[in-house]
Amino acid sequence: MIGPFDVWDDDTPLDDDEVYVPFLKEVELSAGSGKTIVEQSHKQKLRFGKLTLRRQGVQPSDAVCVTVSGNSMEPVLPDKSTVGVDQGSTTVVDGKMYALDHDGQLRVKTLYRLAGGGIRMRSFNRDEHPDEEYTSQQMEDCMITIIGRVFWSSALW
């Protein structure tokens, strides 16, 4: 369906069939420790239709957005792409894309399960970013947490 865009800003009220989806971002901890954490931005948000989320099986309260940084997922997700993430879907399905918190760094990777509870992280740009494999113990040691499954993406070219 092709039609005009509805223009809105932060002051435009939501329609009955819309919800705001917040962004996650990396935040440096105070005291200059150089350590970052992942937390919700109180300024950035996107509008999503409730039907769009429902069709993807995503509860509005579980949806967040993340900005992709770097070229590891190119050409599928160029640098500065935005992805929608379902935080209610953290069980790895081989070959699906997930957002991860890797010791305070937001990452988006295609995941595969490994024996013993580990994971393989795969980039689309495998020439520059080879696969990474982590056992369940290494995931704990490296503080790797699956934030959720990617259900939507957008890129500006």
Characterize the structure shown.
The chain is mainly beta. It has a single domain (18-154), classed as Umud Fragment, subunit A. It is 8% helix and 43% strand. It has helices at residues 50-55, 136-141, and strands spanning 18-28, 36-49, 63-67, 82-86, 97-102, 105-113, 119-122, 132-134, 144-154. The protein has a 7-stranded antiparallel β-sheet with strand order 3-4-9-5-6-7-8. It has a two-stranded antiparallel sheet with strand order 1-2. A hairpin with a 5-residue loop joins strand 6 and strand 7. The protein starts with 17 loop residues before the first strand and ends with a strand.
Unreliably modeled segments: none
CATH architecture label name? Ribbon
Encode the helix/strand succession as letters.
Answer: EEHEEEEEEHE
- As a percent range, the share of helical residues equals under 10%
Strand tally: 9
